[in-house]
Fold this sequence. Notes:
- This protein is α+β, with helices and mostly antiparallel strands and 315 residues long.
- β9 (223-228) and β10 (231-238) form a beta hairpin.
- It has nine helices and 14 strands.
- The protein folds into two domains: 2-151, Aminopeptidase; 162-279, Gcn5-related N-acetyltransferase (GNAT) (Aminopeptidase), CATH 3.40.630.30.
Amino acid sequence: xxxxxxxxxxxxxxxxxxxxxxxxxxxxxxxxxxxxxxxxxxxxxxxxxxxxxxxxxxxxxxxxxxxxxxxxxxxxxxxxxxxxxxxxxxxxxxxxxxxxxxxxxxxxxxxxxxxxxxxxxxxxxxxxxxxxxxxxxxxxxxxxxxxxxxxxxxxxxxxxxxxxxxxxxxxxxxxxxxxxxxxxxxxxxxxxxxxxxxxxxxxxxxxxxxxxxxxxxxxxxxxxxxxxxxxxxxxxxxxxxxxxxxxxxxxxxxxxxxxxxxxxxxxxxxxxxxxxxxxxxxxxxxxxxxxxxxxxxxxxxxxxxxxxxxxxxxx
Length: 315
């Protein structure tokens, strides 16, 4: 007989084991599970729904809502997220996953949520959305549970073995410097302005990535800052998420400054710095394929490695 309940202390080992048996393209370690889930300020054991048979874990669906604002006082009171789910292969299509999803969604509904997303959860998303190519059954499951596709971000990689900072980029840097722009590695004096720039111009998760990255030991030279005079107009960072040095981003240029090649400069200078650290690649999990950033990445030699679907269900 299947027993359904929420997370209890001691369940972690079985959760990580079953995760790695099922999410083959996104394995996790006990340390990462601890850092991304158990130590998340928004973690609530009641949202982690588990299924057992004879004390063996056979399924998990995790629901989370915001308890700590990402920025300011905004708790996004109408939104909830399903960052991950999985069911033992021997119990798929038996109703176990559907029951767990029902309990997870009920948890969010009881906490007055009106919209549920898979997954697009910050700060600790494991993946942006569902990878249909890797997990076709899971994608069909989400659709059967009433989730619809919102958009499809892509992950990209760039091998750095053959990377070279071109004369074209060097000349572009020179031109912009003559116009009063600077491109430098961050110092302490830059941190507040860059974090505020990331928060206000782009996404509070980007500001958080910089702040928490530095607190966790991110070297300052892995943050590049573009200024026009004294004004911050762009930045890029690598190694900011989970202290993985070849993970690129976040990266952004003031929309009012676009069209001047500032993003191209920051990206190339960042890749040059990464190669100088003997990193053999650069990768990230999320961009829009048809966005200006997506086109820039392709021109710079990045290739698409995965496509995700961000899904939504209205309650």
